[in-house]
């Protein structure tokens, strides 16, 4: 058959191939260049947004110190020492419109913890251990370098469910550490997140844990696998399994006797 092949076919093919390879190489280089531009833009935006958050804290929140909520500062210092943190983090209280939460963050190498004001109000309404648990949970995020590690693995965010699975594992780690240090605050600390700083004392814990089985289903599962935090029903059961002690008497039962 070779005698039928045009004499220029092969040479044109080789020239075309060379040009094609150059185009492919340029495409890859350009893609990397565009990718780098997107990456840098994302990093700069993230840095600016983070900076604004810290600026808001410094300008509007209340910084806890030995002169400002000194008893809370005492817990923070004690737990920081227990966890061998290199520095006591800067802790701020901020008004949150009734939301009960707290979070840890890092900016320019400095660790920050933010406690929403309603969490602290709970401490002054006989929920002291619950607040200690929440503080311990956040300090454990710092101890385990979760913020830095999360930044390092951003590249895996495109793999479905992987990043959130890692985040949920981190949450279980922090719950476990905090339960070990404050076993009497774990259940209340988590229940308060689900039902508020007053109603949490009314929750039937056995029934709440039983929801794990009778409320299981596709969308419950789907919500959780897309969430950075495990479902609260599971977190409560987890701390009970770890030996958390019920700190208030709402069902006339001790957590150890729970079947959940
Ligand atoms: Zn957490």
Summarize the structure in words.
By secondary structure, this protein is α+β, with helices and mostly antiparallel strands. The protein has two domains: 1-60; 61-257, Metalloproteases ("zincins"), catalytic domain (Zincin-like, 2-Layer Sandwich), CATH 3.30.2010. 60% of the residues lie in helices and 8% in strands. The protein is built from ten helices and four strands. The chain has helices spanning 9-60, 70-82, 117-123, 128-143, 146-152, 162-181, 186-199, 205-214, 218-225, 232-241; strands at 62-63, 90-94, 102-107, 110-116. It has a four-stranded mixed β-sheet, sandwiched between helices. Helix 8 crosses helix 10 (232-241). The longest helix has 52 residues, at 9-60. The protein is elongated. The termini are far apart. Mean pLDDT is 81; it is low at 251-260. Zinc ion binds at residues 137, 141, 171, 174.
Short structural description:
With about 260 residues, this protein is α+β, with helices and mostly antiparallel strands.
* Secondary structural class: alpha+beta
Outline type: elongated
Strand order of the largest sheet: 1-2-4-3
User: CATH class of the largest domain, please?
Assistant: Alpha Beta
The largest pleated sheet is described as:
4 strands, mixed
The CATH topology name of the largest domain reads Zincin-like
Radius of gyration: 26 Å
What is the total number of structural domains? 2
What do the pLDDT scores average to?
A: 81
- The counted number of beta strands is 4
Helix-residue proportion? 55-70%
The CATH superfamily label of the largest domain reads Metalloproteases ("zincins"), catalytic domain
**Small molecules bound:** zinc ion
**What amount of the residues lies in strands?**
5-15%
């Amino acid at each position: 058959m070779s005698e039928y092949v045009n004499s220029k076919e092969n040479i044109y093919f080789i020239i075309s191939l060379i040009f094609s390879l150059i185009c492919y190489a340029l495409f890859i280089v350009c893609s990397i260049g565009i990718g780098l531009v997107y990456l840098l833009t994302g990093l700069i935006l993230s840095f600016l947004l983070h900076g604004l958050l810290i600026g808001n804290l410094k300008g509007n929140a209340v910084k806890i110190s030995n002169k400002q909520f000194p008893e809370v500062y005492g817990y923070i210092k004690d737990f920081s020492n227990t966890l061998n943190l290199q520095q006591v983090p800067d802790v701020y209280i901020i008004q949150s419109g009734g939301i009960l939460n707290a979070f840890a963050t890092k900016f320019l190498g400095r660790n920050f913890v933010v406690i929403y004001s309603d969490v602290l109000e709970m401490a002054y309404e006989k929920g002291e251990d619950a607040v200690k648990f929440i503080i311990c949970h956040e300090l454990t995020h710092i101890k385990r370098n979760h913020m830095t590690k999360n930044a390092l693995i951003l590249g895996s965010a495109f793999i479905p469910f992987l990043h959130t699975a890692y985040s949920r594992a981190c949450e279980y780690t922090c719950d476990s550490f905090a339960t070990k240090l404050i076993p009497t605050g774990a259940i209340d600390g988590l229940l308060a997140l689900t039902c508020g700083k007053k109603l949490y004392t009314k929750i039937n814990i056995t029934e709440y844990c039983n929801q794990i089985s009778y409320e299981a289903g596709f969308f419950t599962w789907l919500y959780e696998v897309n969430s950075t935090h495990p479902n609260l029903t599971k977190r409560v059961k987890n701390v009970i399994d770890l030996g958390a002690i019920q700190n208030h008497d709402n069902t006339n039962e001790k957590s150890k006797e729970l079947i959940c």
